[in-house]
Write a structure and sequence with these properties.
Layout: H1 7-18, H2 26-33, H3 37-50, H4 59-75
Helix pairs in contact: 1-3, 2-3
Length: 76
């Protein structure tokens, strides 16, 4: 499995993708940064969830849910 990209790099790529001109496609931005289009799409989607634009569980909520599941398993 490839090493994950640093968060700063992800943030920069997402910022560029959000501020792109209408004629520029995500595929071109992804190629410019050396990542796949699906990777960029996933990052954009996760950012929208974190910003509250799209419904879904944020990273903080996911971490909290994992911890709660561990506690429940321990108590059972």
């Amino acid at each position: 499995m490839p090493k994950p990209y640093p968060q700063e790099f992800r943030d920069d790529v997402v910022r560029v993708a959000r501020n792109r001109e209408p004629a520029v496609h995500l595929k071109q931005i992804a190629a410019d940064f050396g990542i796949s289009e699906s990777c960029l799409t996933n990052w954009l989607s996760k950012t929208e969830v974190e910003d509250g634009v799209k419904p879904g569980a944020t990273v903080g909520q996911s971490v909290e849910n994992r911890e709660l599941c561990k506690r429940v398993r321990l108590l059972e």
